Amino acid sequence: MFLNIDEQQQDKLALIDNEDNRVTYGELVGLINAVGSKVEPRSLVFLLCKNTVGSMVGYLGFVEHEAVPVTLNAKIDNDLLTNLLKIYTPAYVWAPFEEAVRLEYEKIYECCGYALLKTGNELYPLNEKLQLCMTTSGTTGSPKLVRYKKGNLEANAKNVAIAFGWTKDERPICDLGMQYTMGLNVINTHLYVGATVLLTTYNLMSGEFWDYIKKERGTNFTGVPFSYDILYRLHFDRMDLPDLHTLSQGGGKLTDARFTQLAEYARKTGKRFIASFGTTETSARMACLPAELSITKIGSIGRAIPEGELFLIDEDGKEIVDPVAEGEMCYKGPNVTMGYAVCKEDLLKDDEFNGEYHTGDLARRDEDGCYYVTGRLSRFLKLLSFRVSLDQSERLIQQEFNIECACSGTDQRMNIYITDESKKAQVLEFIAEKTNLYKTLFKVLVVPEILRNESGKIRYMKMDAMYVG
To answer: For residues 14 and 91, what is the distance between their CA atoms, to the nearest angstrom?
Structure first.
């Protein structure tokens, strides 16, 4: 069975959610078969995701029974959902009761707070290797999907579990949405080892969230950089969390200051801090930094997970063999997906990545073989012919002023978004000095908030449209 769920201790709790659902591995096997048997093999299913047992049962049941889920946020905007339904014409939709009411399809099955809706769309050919589709970077408005092939999810689950040392005794706190590659990876890796997964829809800033993880004795937490910004605003380092032994990070680069804070917190409290790096195209994680190196390798993503290989290429696409080097970071491994889709015809395409993915991230490799992401190839401006990194500019400002910041722009001007009016003049002075460029090449805009998508990543295009035009 998918993720070896039928091989786990059958009376052990597999899933707990904050809607009072508790399911053992034995019960989960039964639910997987019950839901999966209701759909046609090789059919496309839109899965409107919540971090609940119902959502998980649908995902596992469809994959096990050879249907292909497309994971979407249950709260997806109605116009966006309508557009995706028109483009991909799925045969079914699996939706929570409260979201199913907006779709005028025939209800053919109910389970765990979810309804299976039959759309009436005709089945069409899908590539025989295709197992799952997921939107890129957690967004739900774009029709662009990443195509997962059979074996991607299980290989990543196995190798991440080995790299992190997960066992059946873990009780991971899963607050990242399961429609987001990192959220799904946390779930998969722990089901693979027979752990008890704590699913939650509570907001990280709510008292309910903390009551839930204390009550259910959460042992590890995975957050994106924005998650840890929130945690430090809540002074979580002063909280009494005796069961929590591992903090993990993915989904973007922490500032060196925040990385240091987490590494020091782990050292002082006897916990582990593990930084990691991944992409939707690599089934989430492809590298992690062993906890014991977190103090000495500040900012590093570490080395490739088992069965994977990280390497660097130069501007001509040739591999850089020097041990210490900088270039575009690439990855080979069994968790590399098949490629992209922008329409339903693309779901018939074969594997276009062939086990190798070029990330578009610039990285350097140190003398110990540890990697450090330094920016995006596309996240550069040429101001007066000088190449300026938007990512580096953000990090410099964040670390200097301890404020939220987003940088975008054109080769004529960099736009710097901040939320603190009192720092406006200082930020302008600082960035001009750091880059040794004229102040007129920068515009600091004070905004109510830094806009982010559901996975915490900054929505640069939306902000430019709103504030620059």
So the answer is: 29
